[in-house]
Amino acid sequence: MEETRESRMNSVVEMAISSTLESCSNENFLACFAEFQSEEDKKALLNLRELFLQLLASSIKHDVSLISEELKIPQKLAELDRSTRSSVVVGLPAEDPKLVMANLRCALKRQARDKLLEMKAANDARLAASRGRYNMAKQKVGLPALY
Description:
This protein is mainly alpha-helical.
């Protein structure tokens, strides 16, 4: 009995490594292994599934960072001028994992630039209003306007 149980658990591990693990729910996952009826077995299977999902997620994050370092994406983005960078990066296919990082960084840089321009415009408007009030006050007293 122990050998068959151990071989079944090995098949669980093999399934956990496969890509179907990601897409199935806990209930569907447990239904595949109906012979494991005890609550302890079910908890062990779900814990095993969760562990492999975490390992898969960390592996993907690690691969993306390695790809980013290999391609020297930040240096390449810095070499391209703003107009070329936006037209090149926007045209890339979204599925290409090597270029997803470049696409994200470009979008973040655009958002940051837009936010800074918005803040600068608000600051310029505030300064202009302040200068206008200052000049009007000076003219009321008979002094020449500064701006």
